[in-house]
Design brief:
alpha/beta, 8 helices, adenylylsulfate kinase activity, binds adenosine-5'-diphosphate, 200 residues, globular, APS_kinase_dom, nucleotide-binding, EC 2.7.1.25, binds 3'-phosphate-adenosine-5'-phosphate sulfate, 14% strand
Length: 200
């Protein structure tokens, strides 16, 4: 429930559309969701590099990074994950208003939480990207050694092991990182954005 009362919205005199025109591209959230180790961070980093080289204004929000600051008071209980995603949804919305292409890399395991973010934005401002990989693949990659710790009983409530991951039902894009290289996947997203006229 909102705690603030007696607050009044104050309009800007520069609109989102004007900022988008200045940037020469639309603003949108590319919401990458998937298991730990599926490839969310790798793909968003690569994409951001390529977009920057094409003169596109981006910002990357990554679970690990945001949990160092804005969300450092949150853990991995279902309630904390929901609050994590709620805050990121609001931050993403601000960044879309600022005219950016926002690349988010959060496990975001709950369908309802992701749908709530979608509902915050205009219908063409949220692109859900399911980064798909078998749990076995993620565990084999184990880029941060977390699955090893989970198996040793040192981490609890780990997504895909003893905490759920609800796959998207109707994502705009599915990227299977068991089957496609990083180069193929990033190229696919770049083409998608061009074809849908988000970028030139
Ligand atoms: N218990 C548990 N479950 C899942 N992940 C864990 C956990 N503990 C720590 N980590 C590390 O935190 C990163 C996930 O943070 P997120 O903010 O993306 O999680 S969530 O969306 O709120 O579920 C996740 O990053 P990625 O591996 O990049 O997905 C892990 O590095
Ligand atoms: N086809 C692929 N697409 C994305 N990442 C891949 C692929 N093949 C191997 N990897 C590796 O898998 C790991 C994925 O880790 P990361 O990007 O941190 O995942 P997440 O952010 O989803 O936890 C990286 O070490 C990356 O180099």
């Amino acid at each position: 429930m909102p705690k603030s009362t007696n607050i009044v919205w104050h309009e800007s005199e520069v609109s989102k559309q004007e900022r988008q025109r200045l940037n020469r591209h639309k603003s949108v959230v590319l919401w990458f969701t998937g298991l730990s180790g599926s490839g969310k961070s790798t793909l968003t980093v690569e994409l951001e590099k390529k977009m920057y080289q094409s003169g596109i204004r981006t910002y990357r929000l990554d679970g690990d990074n945001i949990r160092h600051g804005l969300n450092k008071n949150l853990g991995f209980s279902p309630e904390d994950r929901t609050e994590n995603i709620r805050r990121i949804g609001e931050v993403s919305k601000l960044m879309v208003d600022a005219g950016l292409i926002v690349l988010t890399a959060f496990i975001s395991p709950y369908r309802q939480d992701r749908d709530n973010v979608r509902a915050l934005l205009e219908s063409d401002e949220f692109i859900e990207i399911h980064v798909k990989a078998e749990l076995e693949t993620c565990e084999k990659r184990d880029p941060k050694g977390l699955y090893k710790k989970v198996r040793a009983g040192q981490i609890k409530e780990f997504t895909g092991i003893d905490s759920p991951y609800e796959e998207p039902l109707h994502p705009e894009i599915v990227i299977d990182t068991d089957k496609h290289t990083i180069e193929e996947s990033t190229q696919y997203v770049i083409e998608f954005l061009k074809n849908k006229a988000y970028t030139e």
